[in-house]
Amino acid sequence: MCDPPFDRYRDLFTGSILQRSQHEGRQVVEEHELPVIDLRSLRSENVEERVSCVSEIVRASSDWGFFQVLNHGVSNELLGEMSREQKRLFELPFEMKASAKLLNGSYRWGTPTAKSLDQFSWSEAFHVPLAKISDPDCCSSEFGCLSDAMERLAGTMSELARMLAGVLAENLGSPGDQFTKSCSKSTCFLRLNRYPPCPFSPETFGLMPHTDSDFLTILHQDQVGGLQLRKDSKWIAVKPNPDALIVNIGDLFQAWSNDVYKSVQHKVMTNTKVERYSVAYFLCPSNESTIGSCREPSVYKKFTFGEFRRQVEEDVKRSGYKVGLPRFLL
User: Is residue 74 part of a domain?
Assistant: First the structure.
């Protein structure tokens, strides 16, 4: 059986805990399509087209914190290969995924710190530093094709993330390579996600509400759906687009931009019958990197990425929830 074992979390799905935890999940959620931006215009010789494309990226990053990109440079062939290899990996027995040190021993299932259902994520994942993908010990020979696909995907998504970060930095008067030195293979991550069918409750989180603790995230998801984000104080469901990648702003970019760009809360809801797959690239700096504001007066005090991560871990351990940027307000 490829699904993770359920017994360790059984108590979260019983009695009053279930009723208490599902209040938010019962809300009616409308489906919307995220802003769609054709990146071909960024490479156009027509200045007006380039300026218009930059304006679309900036507006979406400020108003939504999320957008979709077409002509992004990641081939459908590579995305298809990655999806096939990812499914083959997750079909392994739970014991092998959890104990065989696959992908740098980065396997995760559920939320060990959860004390209630609204602190729990019904999902499994491998969270791999890019620098570890090519290590001989990262993948056995059986998964050589997976390692190759991951390395190529990480390379193309890294180029895309740096290009978009450059556009957003230049819009605020900073150099386009503002984040190049602090974000490298040793600091950025690729995360492979699987959301198994959850027969116990359709209101269970596949991934609990959160913001991303990075500069920028690029996501490729299948067509099952389930991704939702917070917009104008309401949850909206993101309509899948088979031709697009999803981009979202992370906490560090919101802090650096002085709240010009928005790191928006989002979540994944489970499906009772169908599994969902996605792969995400995270543009992260080193732990020693200082996140300062691009302009004064600053909304946030200066902090290092390491300090930010430790504070998030502390909050989750103590309360079950991430607090994030509000901890660093001046």
Answer: yes
